[in-house]
Amino acid sequence: MYDQDLPKLVQWKNDTQIFRKTAGGVIAKIDADIDNYQKAFSNMAKRNVLNSLSQLIVSWEKIQYSTVSGHVAVKALKEIIAKKLRELGALAHKYSQVTLIGWERPCSTMTGDYFRFVDKDSGDQQGKCHEMMHAIESARNNLVLNGDNDSTLKIFMAPEFYFRGAKGAYSYDLVADIIPTMKKLGTENGIYEHWLFVFGTAVAASEDTQTFCTVCLPPNNLKIKFVKDPKNPAKTIPQCMNNPAHATAEGSYGNEVQNVALIQKGQDTHMVVKEYVSGIDYKADQVTVTVGQGKSKIDQTNWYVPPAGSSQSRFVSKFKDERMGGGIFTIDGITFGMEICLDHSHTSATPNSGGRLAPYADTIQILLIPSFGMTIGTGLYCVNGGIVFNVDGQNAGSSDLKVKGHVGPPVVRRDVAPQKASGKLGVWGPLTMPHRI
């Protein structure tokens, strides 16, 4: 019935007309996700939506099993969802347990400066990749000695701001090269088949050039429209929307920052961009980028500009749903959430009122929080029995783990001293793998 792809929403509604009066809110959610699937622009977004659809159908069958499970449209939808998940490599997870390893590595110096190996960013990036690989190897050696097995997923996570240069940020090409470098160093080898890596976060920045009003204050100085040039009607000129008499200029408006968590499991890679910029993220709220070419290259220090599409940006994201390119990702059939530092305590509506992923708590199995100055607190945004894991790079570095609904003895943790790497490793578990239903 749906041989090649999920049905369009109109067709699905027509095929399930018989259920429309009795299915309640669950069918409306299925409708919404069928529509979301058609809009999804990335394989990860499609995985997330397909995974949610599978869970919604299970919930629907619990309510109306006798009439729903055997219906031709529902059966066809389940079959095409399973087919698409296989094509996207999102098979049902094979893990009964999970062990989480936090690399408690300080990410600032004793003077509060940006932590770095060398001042040259390319050498700094390479040095940090090699140090992280040593930490990963130490973690694996310890697990092997303590009786590891293939039914246990291993999650290794480094803190926020591990990768950043002497001036506060790398260039985009250096950030793009981190995962390929880690793969070459060994993280895609067969011995790490059952490992998921979060390589901390990396900061990239680039000059943001805009036309702006030279009189108005931000953000009103960007309220510009283009009107016909009275001297040359074939061309347009910028005009301040607040006061047409104000002078305008084109130039550097600031340096846009992207603070991204880098994720890898085997050939599967993903990244999540930090939504909220904290007052401690950048010295004096500024960051330096190199502009120009060849001998004309210069370092330019300017105010940071929040990443495009974030809640603090002047550019509105096309999607508000975190599954469609935000902090939700699905790997091996497991739904993960990622909140980078301040994202764990902010929502788009109100600061300090709950985490970025709080509305998705009933779908997240494991919530990951790489940070620099954040704790878990009461923010257990996951299913009952779900795991919240925080690795922080402030001061001496730390890690913490909580299981939602857990009662009884504390979760077992042991400390491991990594070889040829700073800090220490906090090894938590193994724990029972959480399930959504």
Write up this protein.
- This protein folds into 3 domains: 9-87; 97-208 and 258-432, 4-Layer Sandwich (Nitrilase/N-carbamoyl-D-aminoacid amidohydrolase); 210-252, no CATH class.
- It has 7 helices and 16 strands.
- The chain has helices at 9-15, 25-39, 43-68, 72-87, 121-145, 172-176, 178-187; strands spanning 97-104, 152-157, 195-213, 224-229, 232-240, 248-265, 268-273, 286-291, 298-305, 328-331, 334-338, 366-371, 387-392, 398-403, 413-416, 424-432.
- Strands 1, 2, 3, 6, 7, 8, 9, 15 and 16 form a 9-stranded mixed sheet that branches. A 5-stranded mixed sheet has the order 10-11-12-13-14. The protein has a two-stranded antiparallel sheet with strand order 4-5.
How would you briefly describe this protein structure?
By secondary structure, this protein is an alpha/beta fold. The protein has helices at residues 9-15, 25-39, 43-68, 72-87, 121-145, 172-176, 178-187, and strands spanning 97-104, 152-157, 195-213, 224-229, 232-240, 248-265, 268-273, 286-291, 298-305, 328-331, 334-338, 366-371, 387-392, 398-403, 413-416, 424-432. The model has no long low-confidence stretch (mean pLDDT 89).
